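Listing S7. Sequence submitted for prediction.
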Amino acid sequence: MPDVDLSALSADRHGSVPLHGFLATPDGPGPWPGVVLIHEIFGLDDVMRRQARRAAEAGYLTLAIDLYSAGGAARCVVSTMRSLFTATGRAYTDIETARRWLQASTSCTSKVGVIGFCMGGGFALVAASTGFDAAAVNYGQLPKDVESALARACPVVASYGERDRTLRGTATKLENALARAGVAHDVKEYSGAGHAFMNDAPVGPRPLRPLLRIAGMGPHPEAAADAWRRIEEFFALHLATTD
């Protein structure tokens, strides 16, 4: 069962109903900065829940929003990907609902960041201009009009794999676009790593996993550890509260 039911808030904003999320809470006393986590194309699976717990271990109240809440992956993946490609649609409403839920929580400070992986990385990049205080983009595709999308973006930390055939050259394009927009950023491409390198286990339908490995997709522990180090340092800088 989901830890958080955001359906009432989502209905008020004409978002997905039902809308669920997985909440990972840091140890010790709060309040803490918040983070909205956006899952990969395969959905809010156990790997994504562990990523949420990883963010919580770093001191962030982390809400992993389930963009497939209103019907599961089979019914929602096409409309969700359409939202990603067009930079509009219900998925962004759901992400904003998660951000507002965190901000309204007494366990959260006034600062909220967003982190996304794969499909979620693309959403996080567009959402960087929608009220978040920092964004972590992990192997996310660029929006069609990247200059416009980043014009009002919050600080962005991004990680890509050099062996990711689906996103060749994306890290350089993103870094250049962020520099032109004057957005604080940290973009890195990891040699030897491919798509989904921050996962700690293979994902996707089992019959497809051998093909995904051949395509260079899957865990790369060394690159993942460094990417998380950079994210923690970046979030610590930009999500810290000021007295």
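Caption to Listing S7: primary sequence and predicted structure tokens for the chain studied. The mean pLDDT is 93. The domain at 4-238 is CATH 3.40.50.1820 (Rossmann fold).
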